[in-house]
């Protein structure tokens, strides 16, 4: 479950250069709805500031230059680059995909 949540978060990482922004609402089951400003990346993936969702998902996020680290409540850390769809964990790597519940 946490990996899926981390996947959602990483698919929403902000990119400082991108297309026009739009507002999206992210519903966090059992918590709250968060309205985020998103930009579409060159590959069509939406990107936003993951720091806005992290507290509701019990995640700690740190960014240094283009590197991003996400640590869950159990201390497991995942690494990625800003705007990347690849998430590297201690035992495995995952390619992130976005799925829409709208439809």
Structural class: mainly beta
| Helix and strand element order | HEEEEEEEE
Largest sheet: 3 strands, antiparallel
As a percent range, the share of strand residues is 35-45%
Give the uncertain stretches in residue-range form.
10-19
**Percentage of helical residues?**
under 10%
Task: For the record, give the distance between the C-alpha atoms at the N and C termini, rounded to a whole number.
Answer: 23 Å
Tell me what you see in this structure:
The chain is mainly β. It is 10% helix and 37% strand. It has one helix spanning 2-11, and strands at residues 21-27, 33-40, 46-47, 60-64, 67-71, 77-81, 86-88, 93-95. The strands form 3 sheets. A 3-stranded antiparallel sheet has the order 1-2-3, with no helix packed on it. The protein has a 3-stranded antiparallel sheet with strand order 4-5-6, with no helix packed on it. It is globular. Mean pLDDT is 75; it is low at 10-19.
């Amino acid at each position: 479950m946490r990996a899926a949540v981390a996947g959602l978060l990483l698919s929403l990482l902000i990119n400082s250069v991108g297309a026009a922004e739009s507002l999206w609402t992210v519903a966090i089951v059992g918590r709250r709805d968060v309205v985020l400003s998103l930009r579409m990346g060159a590959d069509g993936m939406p990107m936003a500031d993951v720091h806005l969702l992290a507290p509701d998902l019990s995640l700690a996020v740190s960014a240094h230059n283009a590197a991003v680290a996400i640590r869950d409540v159990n201390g497991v850390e995942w690494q990625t680059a800003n705007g990347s769809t690849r998430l590297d964990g201690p035992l495995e790597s995952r390619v992130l995909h976005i799925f829409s519940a709208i439809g």
